[in-house]
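re: ur question from earlier - yeah i can do the single chain one, its not a big deal. heres the input i used so u can compare w yours
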Amino acid sequence: MGFVKGLATIVGIAAVLMGLLWILQGLDVVRWPASSFMLGERVWTRNGAILAVVGALLIWAGRRR
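and the output i got, formated as tokens:
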């Protein structure tokens, strides 16, 4: 069971980081890569927020005893 919890934590951290990147790209704060279709599109702000919340839940589940 320890392996699964560790994997959930790692995947959760990656999901939170990716979600934050999507949020910032959707808000047009981070313009990387410069030709990305996600820049300035509010739908990616929403998608990023959802992904970040799912990642936080995975981290929480992985850290529970």
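DSSP finds two helices and no strands in the chain. not sure if urs matches, ping me
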